[in-house]
Design brief:
This protein has 196 residues and is α+β, with helices and mostly antiparallel strands. It has a domain at 124-193. 33% of the residues lie in helices and 9% in strands. It has helices at 18-30, 43-55, 98-108, 124-128, 132-144, 185-193, and strands at residues 72-75, 82-85, 159-163, 180-184. The radius of gyration is 36 Å and the shape is elongated.
Length: 196
């Protein structure tokens, strides 16, 4: 019978008893589905197979980069321990463990050695946000608004001080108390899309 998509086989969901299962396993042993199972190829066939592999460009034995011959010994630059490296990874593996690799990254990828280094430049607004004057401005706004969100009226929530006129575009109004408003995090996220 030809296979038809959506056709349910006759034995789907059926449970076979022990006798039937035994007969099925004996029949499988007599006529295995794997043709070469238990059979040996003759010498000429083996030669033909090896020649086709050589012609097709496959690298065999030690020429294969995945060949595992025991590897070579290397010294970890962090912990100074000897460790065995398989041949397949000997060109790029430098550390004995992920712990040593992460230590090396913490030590060596700082400052100008980091790929994201921008010459030590820190934007002024990030630098200024940690000023004591702005922290005091924030506290004054919270006390003025009685620690209540001015849009939704929540009291038991995390409050953020919002600059009504932009912190970046109005530098003279950065520390003015009239330029601030107390908002909860949800309301503050709404103001990031459009000004209130």
């Amino acid at each position: 019978m030809m296979f038809i998509k959506g056709h349910i086989p006759w034995n789907k969901g059926k449970k076979f008893n022990i006798k039937v299962k035994r007969k099925m396993s004996e029949a499988k042993l007599k006529n295995p589905t794997k043709y070469w199972l238990g059979k040996k190829r003759d010498f000429q066939t083996k030669q033909k197979i090896s020649q086709t592999i050589k012609i097709s460009g496959q690298r065999l034995g030690k020429n294969n980069p995945m060949y595992k011959d025991g590897g070579s010994l290397k010294i970890c630059p962090i912990c100074k321990k000897y460790f065995l490296v398989p041949t397949s990874t000997k060109f790029w593996r430098k550390f004995c463990s992920y712990r040593c690799k992460s230590k090396w990254m913490r030590i060596s990828l700082i400052g100008s050695d980091n790929s994201n280094w921008k010459g030590g430049f820190v934007p002024i607004y990030k630098y200024m946000r940690n000023w004591q004057i702005l922290k005091e401005w924030r506290n004054k706004i919270f006390t003025r608004d009685n620690y209540i969100c001015q849009l939704c009226g929540k009291t038991d929530c995390y409050l953020e001080a919002h600059h009504i006129k932009s912190f970046t575009y109005y530098p003279k109004l950065r520390t003015e108390i009239t330029n601030g408003i107390s908002l909860c995090r949800d309301c503050h996220n709404l103001t990031k899309r459009k000004y209130v």
